[in-house]
Specification:
Length: 297
Amino acid sequence: MDKGLKAFLAVARGGSITAAASTIYLAQSSVTKRIAALEAELRTPLFHRDRRGMSLTEAGEMFLVRAERIEREYRNGQEEVAVISSTGLSELKVGAGPVFHLNWVAGLFADLMERFPNLKLDLKTEHSESMGKLLRSGAIDVYLGILSEDEIDSSISTKHVTQVEHGIVLREDDPISQTDTINPADLADYQWVSFTIDPVTELRIEQYTLPKGSKKSLIDIRTTSLATGVQLVKSGRFVMSAPLQLAKVVKKEGLVIRPFLHRMHPRDAGVHVRKSSLEYGAIKTVISYFDRIQVQN
């Protein structure tokens, strides 16, 4: 990919020459020269510069859209050619939502290691960034979980594996947990933990639970750590929203999970990969593994 474009993307994402230089392993002076040359070629400044760093100008924002598209096409071309010219990936970077990484990733990784002993595996379970964006940019190769429609474009292939529905986690000895479903109105005296940061699910929980027209947030604590959520619920002062598909994991902790009285709308979850990588052996193994999971479900 063009060196100027690479430097531009690094500065746009890092917010400074220093951060960009560290990311793309260049001297700061080299990054500065490449940005200057690109701005001269385009005949317009791409960045505002001040003591706090660098931010995109209006022209820079417009150029970023095109630059990221070029980056994606370049990477996709590399992947397509690599399928022909090599044995495939040396490292597989996987992002996974909780239902997948707590239920199936261990089995998947064992399968991958058996088939590809030299393959390096990297698992990302945090959700501080859009997983769709990470997948499109090449920061991860596979995402296992839920992606919203605005995170998927024509470069992404999706295979639905299961549906995820949130319920409520309580202590096993809590009187409210003795019913098959939970009316959120009965939980007015509890504090809420949201396991995973998922704005869509949180909005639906609040729609089911809060009085109509309320603008307050129901969630007191957000965490991507199931262990933290479990310890809070065990204290007896908290309830936690979590996928019903984690029932076995929750049960091992001496807790129970119950559906909402008015069931939450289930959301499709599955395997998301770039179409350009579909012929890699490791990617094919991931898809075939979840083909078996889907049959079992």
